[in-house]
Amino acid sequence: MFGPDDLYFLDKRLVPGLTTKEEVRAVLGDAAARIRRYPDKMEFATWFVMDPGLMLLGAPCERGMFYFARQTLAGVDCRFAAKFESVIRQLCHDSFGPNSETLHKGTAAERTQWKNKVSKATLKVEPPEVFYVDVTHPKTMREHSKHFGKPPKGLE
Question: What is the DSSP string of 68-90?
Fold first, then answer.
């Protein structure tokens, strides 16, 4: 569907830079009723959803953060149980290609990052319980970050 310089995705229904708020709401289904907004303005919004109902290769997403610049999805951050790390890592490898870079930020987190001209994906491991996959469209994410700054306490 996408070439090597196109957008990255984990779930083809959630493509940063393309998917709209209404499309994300449709993907969430019943879980959309549990969206917490921080804040929700025309220019930007962050949606926080516990147990969003997203499944990737049989791995249930425990928590989802959806970042929007105006009406367009800027980024998705999903948290999974550590036991699904190999499944999601293989999905990243298959979706984003074999070229990746391992980054070490701080003492607790190892991050694997894939990127191309228009987007990037980061898999962050925080042993032993959980890991996170973050897929962003830097152009719209920069616009979001410029307005929002850091997330509210408790959502970091």
Answer: EETTEEEEEEEEEEGGGHHHHHH
Query: Which structural domains are found in the chain, ordered by start?
Result: 21-148 (3.40.1000)
Strand order in the sheet with 109-115: 36-40, 44-50, 63-69, 72-81, 130-136, 120-126, 109-115, 101-105
pLDDT tens-digit series, residues 75-127? 999 999 988 888 888 888 777 776 777 666 655 566 788 776 667 778 787 76
pTM to 2 decimal places: 0.79
Dihedral angle of Cα 37, 39, 42, 47, to the nearest 10 degrees: -30
Of the candidates 66, 58, 59, 77, which has an alpha carbon nearest to the alpha carbon of residue 120?
77
